[in-house]
Design a protein that fits this description.
Elements (H helix, E strand, L loop, with lengths): L2 H16 L15 E3 L5 E3 L8 H12 L11 E2 L4 E2 L12 H7 L3 H8 L9 H15 L10 E5 L1 H4 L18 H11 L15 H5 L14 E6 L1 H16 L5 H6 L11 H7 L1 H14 L3 E6 L23 E3 L6
Parallel strand pairs: 6-7
Antiparallel strand pairs: 1-2, 3-4, 5-6, 5-8
């Protein structure tokens, strides 16, 4: 094969990976027995997606074909100027029917792919949001390197992590509204051709109820802020509140650093940085979804990819890093 033909072949493969899909990949997902659910509905009983050998096979196939990287994320990065079509960590590609049900447009996907705006925002909104955040963090910002800000969650990655499976008929038992919407969305689509993880806003659009019978709200807008300077200020505030007996029993139990997720205590952060709390409230009202900033040391969240379910938000090259927009 000539060098020119080889080069053309590589370019064609890259174009295929970066283009939108025509159909979703399939896998021989295990069929699980049908059981009676709440109010007698027939529902599927089965394990989580991570326990299903069919999804494992689909993930391996997607990795072999370059549809996802070792972390289950789509290829591409900010430094490369874009990333591939949205795919979950088992290789399921977002379909036109999914976009329609979720209320997302092709334009919004393009913004997302080129890091111009996370899902649920426009480039103009995200630019203003980022600029106002950095004004809160450091009004002069003489050392912007002291503040590392990254997006997390489904608005940044389109799908939730592997700890949040796509709902099944079993999950929707006793919820007629959610069942009807699920049927409208998935119809008779077999398990092998469904997502393994929840897409952005999926539970909210379904009208699914949580364990307390309340409807799920829109997906959060998660910000991870890493700054030793801010952690030091939060620590001083924590010590002050603790000495004054103003910390709740729950705060004391959870500690200054959350044992499971490693973020800094939210009460300490809220009291140390009231302007950050106001910023979150303003943008929650503007976007109609919770905005959740979490604080970490400058090293970022610890790597927990080898612990528990393997979900980890440690620094990666494929992260969405938020920068202070240039002033015009």
């Amino acid at each position: 094969m000539s060098r020119q033909r080889l080069r053309l072949g590589v370019l064609a493969l890259a174009a295929l990976v970066l283009s939108g899909p025509a159909v979703a990949p399939t896998a021989a997902v295990t069929s699980w027995p049908v059981t009676a659910g709440i109010h007698g509905q027939a529902v599927l009983a089965g394990p989580s997606a991570d326990e299903d050998p069919g999804y494992l096979k689909r993930r391996q196939k997607a990795q072999a074909e370059g549809l996802i990287d070792a972390d289950g994320r789509v290829p591409g990065s900010q430094s490369e100027g874009g990333r591939a079509w949205p795919v979950d960590d088992t290789g399921y590609r977002i379909q036109p029917r999914d976009l329609e049900f979720l209320g997302l447009t092709q334009q919004q996907v393009r913004w997302w792919r080129h890091y111009r705006a996370p899902l649920g925002t426009t480039p103009h909104q995200f630019t203003r949001m980022s600029a106002s955040l950095f004004r809160v963090l450091c009004s002069a910002c003489e050392r912007p390197q002291d503040y590392d800000v990254r997006l997390q969650g489904s608005w940044a990655f389109f799908f939730s992590g592997r700890h949040k499976d796509f709902p099944t008929e079993q999950d929707l038992a006793g919820q007629p509204v959610a069942q009807a919407r699920f049927q409208e969305w998935m119809g008779s689509t077999p398990l092998a051709e469904r997502p393994a993880r929840r897409p952005f806003d999926a539970l909210h659009k379904l009208g699914m109820l949580d364990e307390n019978g309340k409807p799920f709200g829109p997906s959060d807008g998660d910000f991870h802020i890493s700054s030793d300077l801010m952690v030091a200020e939060a620590r001083a505030k924590w010590d002050e509140l603790k000495s004054a007996g103003k910390l709740s029993d729950e705060d004391i139990r959870k500690g200054f650093v959350h044992q499971k997720y490693s973020f800094i205590n939210r009460t300490a952060v809220r009291e140390a940085f009231p302007e950050l709390e106001k910023w979150s409230t303003v943008w929650e009202e503007r976007l109609g979804r919770p905005i959740a900033p979490s604080l970490f040391p400058s090293s970022g969240p610890p790597d927990k990819s080898q612990e528990g379910n393997g979900v980890s938000t440690h620094y990666r090259d494929s992260d969405w890093v938020v920068t202070n927009p240039p002033k015009h």
